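Recap from last week: sequence in, structure out.
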Amino acid sequence: MLLVPLGALLGLGAALLGGFTKGFLLWLPLAAVSGVWAWWFPKRRHQAWGYRINARVLETRSGVWFRVVKLLPLSRLQHVDLHRGPLERASGLASLILHTAGTHEATHVIPGLDADEAVRLRDRLVAVGGDDAV
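Predicted structure tokens:
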């Protein structure tokens, strides 16, 4: 993810050190690729995120280049945190942080939820979890 902006910076450095015309010709395509990347990737990354919940399992999926699907058995859910940083509050968003039993990847995050939806999902997970889970 950092390769394209790094390449653009190297091209700019070449423009400053090796003569303006030659360096500019190297820098311009890298800057164009960086701009397209900065415009396309966040949108695509947001579209790749999703979750699904049923009576027993919470499934999250993410990843633009490599798809990642995580299944979280609700019986292993220990507690649910609702996180709202300053940028999330300004945007009306929230993140749910799910803590499970176990040590390997014991924390799952569902980012970018509408604040009201995050509260509803948290309450639903607590209700589904029952006395022995959440």
